[in-house]
Amino acid sequence: MTTPLDPRHLHSLTTLARAIGGCLILAALLLGCSAPKPDLVAPRALVAPYGTGAGEVLWAVLPLRNESGTTLVDSQATTDKLIAAAEQVRGVRVIPLNRVLQAMAALKTPVVGSPADARRLAEALGVDAVVTGSITAYDPYTPSLGLALALFGDPGSRGTTDLASPGPQTLSTRTTEGLARRGIGPTPLSTASALFDGKSHETQMQVRQFAMGRSEDTTALAWRRYLASSELFGEFAAYQILDDLLRAEWLRTGTAPVE
């Protein structure tokens, strides 16, 4: 015959169980707080295929033309993102956009619409190369962004030039005679074009790689935050199209890209 449990013993067992449960919860919290955080990962850097013995190559990024068929896109903001990405390329320096706009005004070239315009600006600014391009597609809701770039420059140039800003009078009186001496030809050294579609798995994989070292995986969206914001997606697209352009330059110079 089973002896009934004393209510006092039952109360003691219940209290003990609650105490053990509380200790287990506290231990779990302490272990969670003391768990080591993941190591920091540096984002992948873009590297230019130029020897730096004579210094970094100097680029000028020209304002992007809007050929997307929509007025929703902000060409100036997209150009700024492209310049910001180019400034982080190892082996390349980029002159400020205001200097480019000043030169365009002095040369009475409101829009760079031909290779001749690009070459005139390269000579006037005293840079080794200019990056010109256009926005070919834009949808802030997908998001998607199409970009096309062309790099004009001296294929043998590897040095930097004087960063002092030339005056408007100097810019307006310069001629294209200097182009022959610099060797800047009528065709681009390299080109790149792509449509980055946020619904595409290929683009999503590129975004995920871009986000490594740039976003915290502990956040709710993690790397997908670059797909949730057209502004952040624009930063990714500027980086990725420059990566494509530099890969074309690595191929042109006959060297293997740095991964």
Q: What is the gist of this entry?
A:
The chain is built from 9 helices and 6 strands, in the order H-E-E-H-E-H-H-E-E-H-H-E-H-H-H. With 259 residues, it is α/β, with parallel strands linked by helices.
Please explain how this structure is put together.
There is one protein chain. With 259 residues, this protein is an alpha/beta fold. The chain has a domain at 57-197 and 230-252: 3-Layer(aba) Sandwich (Rossmann fold), CATH 3.40.50.10070. Helices cover 43% and strands 15% of the residues. It is built from 9 helices and 6 strands; from the N terminus they run αββαβααββααβααα. Strands 1, 2, 3, 4, 5 and 6 form a 6-stranded mixed beta sheet that branches. Helix 2 (75-86) crosses helix 9. The protein is globular, with a radius of gyration of 28 Å.
